[in-house]
Amino acid sequence: MRLPELCLVALVGISGSGKSTFARRHFTPTQVLSSDAFRAMVADDENDQSASSDAFEALHFVAGKRLRAGRLTVVDATNVQAHARQAIVQVAREHDVLPVAIVLDVPEEECWARTQARPDRDFGRPVLARQARDLRRSLKQLAKEGFRQVHVLRGTAAIDAFELGYEK
Ligand code: CTP
Ligand code: MG
To answer: Model pTM?
Structure first.
């Protein structure tokens, strides 16, 4: 996979699919804007869902600043809902930068097993099931939403084998 040197990457995947792990592996820490970090910034709690609206507003603001300075930026959030992705496409367009989607499509069972082993996550199975349903729906829509590249990595093996390059 080759990404444009300047783009806004939306990671897309249910909780536990490995988005933050993927982001750490392929991008520098400052390229990655995570919804968790922004929730923590505005509400002292990365799991405070009531802070999501403010957190995303702040995240999109910072993403815009980075894009205006010509810096590749990655949004590490589930992005399984169309409205979340619309906001990302809009920020990219406002700054004349290509929006790219990288989907981590990992079986719900596997994500649930990982989630249960995490001290920093305590939501129930129905939350994950809803995300998985939203993701299924999303897979059909992504290309139509304005993403210039859509990369779907299916399963942990494909995700582990993934190598990132940049367009010349
Ligand atoms: N993990 C794993 N094997 C992988 C990738 C991740 O066991 N190939 C583990 C991580 O160590 C972590 C958990 O699965 O404990 C979730 O991975 P993470 O990257 O944090 O998933 P996210 O998609 O970022 O989850 P969230 O949306 O909840 O932030
Ligand atoms: Mg994460």
So the answer is: 0.97
